[in-house]
Structures are given as structure tokens and as C-alpha cells.
Design goal:
Length: 490
């Protein structure tokens, strides 16, 4: 067995794809915050494809971590010379491994923030990209404005502070480039947020304004923030995945990535300077990302929410298990047909019926083994962005909301902390304490969960929403998820 590294990569055998370019010739051109599974299955993979065609060798990725859990990624990637294995899991059980070489260094900011800032101020860095999760943008869910209350932001806003947060480092990097007369880099968000480029611009500029109003004005003028839509189901890597890679292909990889075959990236062609020729490896460069973005958020992402809480409460633990149950799939397709799709503008070049059935096919891939627990995590950042806009648009148009509201009620029931068999649920959310505390009073006060204006705005004052929510939550308590679905689909 070969421990993955630059010294062993060329001896892995014909079954494993490896970089076909000279990695010593690759130079950093992108600084990326948030090197997790999705980034490594998506953006880093696209750049690796470009490099394999002999292009983009000046667009290597310098990965940056800012949070304590990122130390593990630092250790693994440094031990493996930045290499890792991307394993595509086909529905028939076929594994397709490829070693990705586009990450050329990994910097853990708490170790040496000046090293990160030096890389960001280097004129060779022309893009700073982000997968920092929905919560990493510090958006107040009620007002849509910047929320500076995070302790890391408060630290970075102190005069003379050495930045520790992603926002602090990105803005300090821009400040230093401005002072040195170096052109601004493009900030490219790759997170699942509607208008992610617009959100990144608004939040980063708002943060900068708290430090230096002139700098904020310069960022508004000079920095480009392209919107993007990204898509690839990338479950958490399990020990079994590492074992299969070792047993079947002889690769010892400290943190491989597994993903589905499907991948999509729709990117607004709005860069302040040079960019890689992404279109040559299948990225859709467009003028307006919004139709594609809304399609993905309200059909794929919201559909994940529609299956995960109800499925978990009913006893399932994997997405593909839920998708093998006709009752749940009828409900899911009903949500997409009757509530999600009616809120969408026309999507150029996309047949929505085909897209919806392709989603079901993707969710049902038994080899991906995407856990419902992963899909249920960080709901407070997801439901308000992915599902509640559907509810509001359907309410405004006088159309159906019953399926969407049942999903909200299922979230509230899930947050109570136990499933229908009485087994404990580990609620994973940055607002866990508040959510669980509220949810545990659901039975005596059915509206307590949705009365949080930071998450639900004024929906608790909408009579139609409240009536549907009360009915759904009551049914989940009295009859359970399956019987509730049977009644609703009937």
C-alpha cells in the first residue's frame, strides 16, 4: 500500500487517475477559504482538469483554514504534499478514483496570519474564493443586513488587531493591496446562498466600513464579486471510504473525498482581471446566474430539506433509503411540482421536468450514502434561505404551501431532540441551544418555534401559514411522519 504523496503518486497503477502535469511548475493564483469536501470535489477538481490539459498552471490553489477543526485538513494535506483522492461513486457500485493536484499549499491562519496575508497581497493572487458555509457570511436573517456580533469579527474590528476570521483576512488583504497599488483580487463565493456574490459584496463591504469607510468605498468600486451556482452531492467521508480506497486501489489517503458523478457550476463572467478558462472544462459562464441558482436552491437544496427531517423522524438514516420509499418520493415530487417550481423564472436551456427527475435519480444513488444527519445540519442557515422564500412567494400568489409548511414543522419536530422511536437526535446547528430550547416547548406552545423573528420574520403573524403549521405539527406529534404523509398525499 502506498501512502499518498508526491513520491508515490506515479506508482498507483492504471486504475487510478493522477495529475498528468508537472506539479512543480504550478504556481498559486487562487486563495481559497474553506477547504472541505465540497471544494475538493468541485472547484479544485475543475482546476485539476484544466491543468491536465496543459492550462491554468498559474492558477494553483492556496488553501486557507481559520477554524480549529481546520487543523486536521492542514495536517493531512501537508503530509500528502497537497494531494488527495477524489472518488466518484457510481450507482452500480463502480468507484472511479482520481488524485487531484491543484492544491499547492495549505495555510492554517492561526499558525501564521502574516503568511496568509502575504499570499493574498501577492499580485499573482487574482482570485480569492470562498466555501465558508451559509453562516459564514454573518447575515441577519430578518433584516438581511450585516451582523457583526460574532466574537471573531469583534476581535478583528479592534484597532491594530491581527485578523483571525475569513472576513478579517479578506478585507485586510484588500487594504494592503490598495495601499501598495496592487489591483484588487476578485472575490468568488461558491456557497449555497441566493445571490452569493451580491451577499459577499454587501457583507464584506459592511465589515470593511466598520474599520475604514474609504476602504469600503474602494472595495465597492474596485472589487468584483461574481455570482455562482455550484452543485455536486458530496457526503462526509466515512472510514469505510478510506478502507475501500486502500483495499481496492492500494492508496493510503488520510482524507479522500467521495462524491456523485454529477457536477455543475454556473458562473457569472464578472471578474476584475484574469481568470482561468473555466468554460473549457464544462463550467457554464453566463451573464445572469439567478435563474439557475433559484432552480438549484428551491428544487435540489429545498428538496433535501423536504426529505431529511421527515425521513429521519420515520427511522431512515440515508437519503437513498428515503428515495426508495414511494410515499416520500410522491411527497417530494409534489413539493417540486406544486410549490418549488411555480416560484421559478424561466431557466435558459433547462427542461425542469427532466431536472426534477434527475434530482430523484441522484438522491437515490445507494453508493453515495449521503446521511440524513448531514442534510439536517445547520438548518437555521438553510431553511430561511432555501425554503421560506418559497413559502412567502406562494403565500403572496395565493398558491399552495402545505408541503413546504410540513417541512418547517418537521424541522421543529426534529429539533425536539428525539425521533419517533424515542432515540436521541444530535441537533447540529450554530443556534442549537436556542432551537432545542424552543422546540422542547412545541407541545404546550405550538407557535414557539416559529416565533423567532430572526429566522422566520413575520410569518408567525400570517394566519394561513400559522394554520397550516399548527395542523402539520399536531399531526407529526399525534400520528408521526409516515401517517402524516399518507394523509397529505391522499
Amino acid at each position: 500500500m502506498d501512502k499518498l504523496s508526491s513520491a508515490t503518486v506515479d506508482s498507483l497503477g492504471d486504475q487510478v487517475g493522477v495529475p498528468e502535469y508537472d506539479r512543480t511548475a504550478v504556481r498559486p493564483g487562487i486563495v481559497h477559504f474553506g477547504v472541505g469536501g465540497f471544494h475538493r470535489a468541485h472547484q479544485a477538481m475543475y482546476l485539476d482538469q484544466l491543468m491536465n490539459s496543459g492550462k491554468a498552471l498559474d492558477w494553483g490553489i492556496s488553501g486557507v483554514g481559520t477554524m480549529p477543526p481546520d487543523q486536521r485538513m492542514r495536517d493531512v494535506l501537508q503530509a500528502q504534499d497537497g494531494l488527495y483522492t477524489l472518488v466518484i461513486k457510481h450507482p452500480d457500485g463502480t468507484l472511479e478514483p482520481r488524485v487531484i493536484g491543484s492544491i499547492v499549499e495549505y495555510l492554517y491562519a492561526p499558525d501564521d496570519p502574516e503568511a496568509v496575508l502575504a499570499r493574498m497581497t501577492d499580485p499573482a493572487t487574482r482570485i480569492v474564493s470562498l466555501t465558508i458555509t451559509e453562516g459564514g457570511y454573518h447575515v441577519n436573517q430578518t433584516t438581511g443586513d450585516f451582523d457583526p456580533s460574532d466574537p471573531g469579527l469583534q476581535h478583528d474590528l479592534q484597532p491594530g488587531a491581527v485578523p483571525t476570521s475569513a472576513f478579517g483576512l479578506v478585507v485586510e488583504g484588500l487594504a494592503r493591496r490598495r495601499a501598495a497599488g496592487v489591483p484588487a483580487y476578485t472575490v468568488m463565493s461558491c456557497d449555497n446562498i441566493p445571490g452569493n456574490g451580491h451577499v459577499a459584496k454587501k457583507m464584506l463591504t459592511s465589515y470593511a466600513r466598520l474599520k475604514d469607510a474609504e476602504l469600503a468605498d474602494w472595495i465597492e468600486r474596485e472589487v468584483r464579486f461574481p455570482n455562482s451556482m455550484v452543485d455536486r452531492i458530496t457526503p462526509v467521508t466515512a472510514d469505510a471510504d478510506k478502507a475501500a480506497l486502500a483495499e481496492r486501489f492500494g492508496i493510503e489517503d488520510g482524507w479522500p473525498v467521495v462524491c456523485e458523478p454529477f457536477t455543475q457550476w454556473v458562473l457569472e463572467d464578472d471578474f476584475g482581471g484574469e481568470r482561468p478558462p473555466f468554460e473549457e472544462v464544462g463550467v457554464q459562464l453566463v451573464e445572469d446566474v439567478e435563474p439557475y441558482e433559484l432552480m438549484k436552491l428551491r428544487l435540489l437544496n429545498a428538496s433535501h430539506q423536504a426529505l431529511c427531517y421527515l425521513g429521519y423522524l420515520a427511522g431512515y438514516r440515508y437519503a437513498h433509503e428515503v428515495c426508495q420509499d414511494k410515499l416520500f418520493m410522491d411527497f417530494l415530487l409534489g413539493y417540486m411540482d406544486e410549490e418549488g417550481a411555480p416560484t421559478l423564472p424561466p431557466v435558459p436551456g433547462v427542461d425542469l421536468d427532466q431536472y426534477k427527475h434527475k434530482l430523484i435519480e441522484r438522491f437515490a444513488n445507494p453508493e453515495v450514502r449521503d446521511t440524513l444527519a448531514r442534510l439536517c445540519a445547520e438548518s437555521s442557515d438553510r431553511i430561511p434561505k432555501w425554503l421560506l422564500p418559497v413559502v412567502r412567494e406562494q403565500l403572496a400568489a395565493g398558491r399552495g404551501i402545505e408541503r413546504s409548511v410540513l417541512v418547517v414543522a418537521a424541522w421543529a419536530r426534529y429539533a425536539e431532540g428525539s425521533d419517533e422511536q424515542g432515540r436521541p437526535i444530535e441537533v447540529v446547528d450554530r443556534l442549537r441551544e436556542k432551537l432545542v430550547e424552543r422546540a422542547q416547548h412545541n407541545r404546550e406552545d405550538p407557535l414557539v418555534f416559529i416565533s423567532d423573528p430572526d429566522l422566520f420574520g413575520n410569518l408567525a403573524g400570517d394566519e394561513r401559514f400559522v394554520a397550516a403549521y399548527r395542523s402539520a405539527l399536531s399531526s407529526l406529534h399525534e400520528r408521526g411522519a409516515r401517517a402524516t404523509l399518507e394523509a397529505r398525499t391522499a
